[in-house]
Amino acid sequence: MLYILRLNHRIKRDKRITTHCALTGRAFGADGMIFTGEKDDNIVKSVEDIIKRWGGEFKISYSSRWQNFLTKMKEQNYTIVHLTMYGIQLLEAIPKIRRKKNLVVIVGGEKVPSEIYEKADYNISVGLQPHSEVAALAVFFHEYFKGKELTREFDEIKFKKGLKIVPQKKGKKLIKK
Amino acid sequence: MLYILRLNHRIKRDKRITTHCALTGRAFGADGMIFTGEKDDNIVKSVEDIIKRWGGEFKISYSSRWQNFLTKMKEQNYTIVHLTMYGIQLLEAIPKIRRKKNLVVIVGGEKVPSEIYEKADYNISVGLQPHSEVAALAVFFHEYFKGKELTREFDEIKFKKGLKIVPQKKGKKLIKK
After folding, report:
1. Could you tell me which chain B residue has the CA closest to the CA of A147?
2. Could you tell me which residue, B152 or A49, shows the higher pLDDT?
3. Distances in Å between the alpha carbon of A91 and those of A70, A139, B11?
4. In terms of residue numbers, what domain contains A141?
5. Is residue A158 part of a domain?
6. Which of B97, B166, B67 is nearest to A88 (CA)?
7. How large is the average pLDDT for residues A119-133?
8. What CATH number has the domain bearing residue A27?
9. How distant is the Cα of B63 from the closest Cα of chain A, in angstroms?
10. Tens digit of pLDDT for each residue in B93-152?
11. How far A26 CA sits from the closest chain B CA (Å)?
């Protein structure tokens, strides 16, 4: 199982970034996302609306304390990956991480507590410049799944009902499964 | 040269998403971004602040009309790539696109005019589920540059001054170039 832990959500500033983290995780194969920081029912609602329309079983929930969640996941032998621009390079670390089946992938805001760096099994950088937690998650999952996440038939795995896109050179084609 | 065209920016809703599009473009090797929609000096300011601190020559500007910009770029033989979940699959199209040196990569909001689909040389989908323009740009550039964007020495190319990260297993290390 693959979970995202999104730290330090701030309602005003991060509304859409946190939603995009969840949707990116969902589209690229994660099973769920927990977010901490400010409680925000709109995030949960937005993501659940997408799941309702497009299918799948992605879980999204708020937690007031990341410590409890991480402790529980570590007890269950999850590997903890923290995406930070200060870590070791993604392409160097990814072959080892690909062998792990159960991951928690952490993305933070600007002030990540140093405890996170300590608790993580891997502190991974996606490039050496500041950019975006959404971009970091996307490239991480893309490398983890070796690009297979982009073409797989979701309906065979867990997208049993919902909308389905038919790739087109021009325009849009969408069918109801 | 590689430019991003970000359509339909809305100040309230897209502030951070549009900034993240620009920062992701910059970090992954684009030369600049033009955004349309609502004029927003704060976006320009945020991105220019990052450039001032971290180096590089990324250009960011607002345009009231994407039509003029696209026409100009087409006259200069730029290839127009539109990232949309309805297009043909990235991994199918990318070998051809990699051969093009001058690109405009378009990302839109929810309502992309059909003219964009028509004007684009390639309508490309990064996965078949809704997610994020930031994620789409990141994975597109990652595939376009074959991952080299993550490890290259920016200072040798265009990041002549600014901050530099030294990859670490735990913690942060930053030096002033």
Report:
1. B91
2. A49
3. 25, 10, 36
4. 2-151
5. no
6. B166
7. 94
8. 3.40.1280.10
9. 23
10. 999 999 999 999 999 977 899 999 999 999 999 998 899 999 999 999 999 999 888 876
11. 8
Of A118, A120, A128, the CB nearest to B165: A128
Helices B41-54 and B11-28, interaxial angle, to 10°? 30
**Number of domains comprising chain B:** 1
Tell me if B150 and A24 make a contact (CB, 8 A cut-off): no
CA distance A75 to chain B (A): 21
Which residue of B23, B115, B139 is the best one to mutate when testing the A interface, meaning the one whose CB has the most A CBs within 10 A?
A: B139
pLDDT tens digits along B57-70: 899 999 999 999 99
Q: CB atoms < 10 A from the CB of B156, how many?
A: 8
Could you list the beta-strand ranges (E) of A10-168: 32-37, 59-62, 79-89, 103-107, 122-125, 163-165
Question: Where are any strands of DSSP class E within chain B?
Answer: 2-9, 32-37, 59-62, 79-89, 103-107, 122-125, 163-165, 174-176
Note whether residue A138 is domain-resident: yes
Question: Distance between CA B54 and CA B46 in Å, rounded?
Answer: 12
Confirm whether pTM is higher than 0.90. Answer: yes
CA-based nearest distance A33→chain B, Å: 14
Among partner residues A26, A130, A134, which is closest to B50 by beta-carbon distance?
Answer: A130
ipTM score above 0.85: yes
CA gap A55, A53 in Å, rounded: 6
Is the dihedral angle over the CA atoms A59, A62, A67, A72 positive or is it negative?
negative
Which chain B residue is nearest to residue A124, measuring alpha carbons?
Answer: B169
Structure tokens at B19: 């900034």
Tell whether A159 is covered by a domain: no
Count CB-CB contacts under 10 A for residue B168: 16
Q: Any bridge partners for residue B125, and if so which?
A: B89
Contact A114 B171 (CB under 8 A): yes
Contacting residues for B136 by C-beta, under 8 A, at least 6 apart: A138, B83, B107, B126
